[in-house]
Amino acid sequence: MSKTALVWFRRDLRLFDHAALHHALNNAANNGQKVICVFIFDSTILAHLPKKDRRVAFIWHSLVQLKTALQEHGSDLVVRHGDPVELIPQLAQEFSAAAIYTNHDIEPAAIKRDASVEQKLNQQGQQFHHFKDQVIFEKDQILTQTGQMYQVFTPYKRAWLAKLQDSDLQSYPVQPHLHQLATIPAQRMPSMSDIGFEEIDIAFLKPGMDGGEILFDDFCKRMARYHETRDFPSVKGVSYLSVHLRFGTVSIRELARTALQIGGEGAEIWLAELIWREFYQQLLWHRPDVVDHAFKPEYDALAFPNNEAHFAAWCEGRTGFPIVDAAMRQLNQTGFMHNRLRMIVASFLVKDLLIDWRWGERYFALHLNDFDLSANNGGWQWAASTGCDAQPYFRIFNPTTQSQRFDPKGDFIRRYCPELAELDNKQIHAPSLYLHPQLAYPDPIVDHATQRQAALALFKRN
Ligand SMILES: Cc1cc2nc3c(=O)[nH]c(=O)nc-3n(C[C@H](O)[C@H](O)[C@H](O)COP(=O)(O)OP(=O)(O)OC[C@H]3O[C@@H](n4cnc5c(N)ncnc54)[C@H](O)[C@@H]3O)c2cc1C
Fold this sequence. Notes:
Pfam families: DNA_photolyase (PF00875), FAD_binding_7 (PF03441)
Radius of gyration: 24 Å
Binding site for FAD: 226, 270, 273-280, 370-372
CATH class of the largest domain: Mainly Alpha
Keywords: Chromophore, FAD, Flavoprotein, Lyase
Bound molecules: flavin-adenine dinucleotide
Distance between the termini: 63 Å
Structural class: alpha/beta
Number of helices: 19
CATH superfamily of the largest domain: DNA Cyclobutane Dipyrimidine Photolyase, subunit A, domain 3
Catalytic activity: cyclobutadipyrimidine (in DNA) = 2 pyrimidine residues (in DNA)
Domain Photolyase/cryptochrome alpha/beta: 3-136
């Protein structure tokens, strides 16, 4: 009988509360196997990324932590670069593995990739075991009474909370059986340049399990006030954990458990955000066509004029609308954008500039540290009114009033648009309304009231 099992890490870069590793170690303890941990830098995904990419650096640094933790337990992390469809079956042969364990990834491309891997492994006589790990409820675990997917968030959330048992929040411990990890020769970690990327400073993102823990501990002290602070980008109100949730350097079960323990309005609303994450994941699983198409078919082929110069101004943060420009500059400089600002800039792109939401979605996908297909697509289709439980098309954000409401003193604008720093708290939201001959800041590229009417007409035609 084969003496090893492999655990294939993907978006679960931690050595605690890990479903696949837990099951692999437990089975190994029962049948005398040893467990080897592997990670593949997927060349098909990396090929489409810019050569300086914060996400790749985040993964790289998180892997270093994972590797060190495995070394402390007498093992190591096997890291390769290439096509996992080739490499995983190869590694399975190289290490004479009886089985490969991994956690679910519900993105359409990942589902396809995993099916190919499984087929090859089965041809080689090896088993492929996969587990739910990155969400509390997945796929069709939450359905309406008639067995359909939920299309509205609030009843989905209600059903999610009603289904929740203590067992859903229990960790998948790995500590008790870590001695089942295999002792293997020291493994070389490919450098960033080996995989075709340049170094980029991401220390501010606090990568890895350690970073996730620091951020979560910090947020726990603020969670009770989340409902009051979460909408203000200049305030430290949110958790900043999205990139950690994306790459699994934190455990969703620990996060949800802690929110329920803390309780109160802030924690409840934060838990609801974690449930939004699962709402969009189940949506993508049920409706993979949303990757390219509007969830609402009647809005799939809206005749957006798609002005390329306007798109470039939006991307570069020079639309003449300070809150939009500050937000886009934050994205370009840091890879993060506050949720309120994501809603404002997305609405502005679609309903003020009349540009197809898919253009904005692609730009976010390239630049967001926390880019996640389901949340990004869900967020864009929400803002564009084409999506599941989306903003109705006739509710159009006014960027200036949003700015006055959510950045009342202009603190956030001043941080990213220093050329506006000297303006007073009133003028900073709409500098063009006041006479500033010396100001090195563009005039608004569109008129909101005019574009609002044009957007309404565009949607009404369908
Ligand atoms: C147009 C648009 C695009 C977006 N793209 C992404 C994306 O690519 N990746 C991503 O993780 N989030 C995305 N979001 C959701 C949200 O903006 C971010 O999750 C949030 O800003 C991250 O900051 P945080 O971790 O401090 O969030 P917190 O406010 O602390 O929320 C906690 C966690 O809940 C989840 N969450 C919060 N809001 C949402 C939401 N609306 N939808 C799904 N999950 C949510 C995230 O995992 C987040 O980390 C998008 C929203 C919009 C409007």
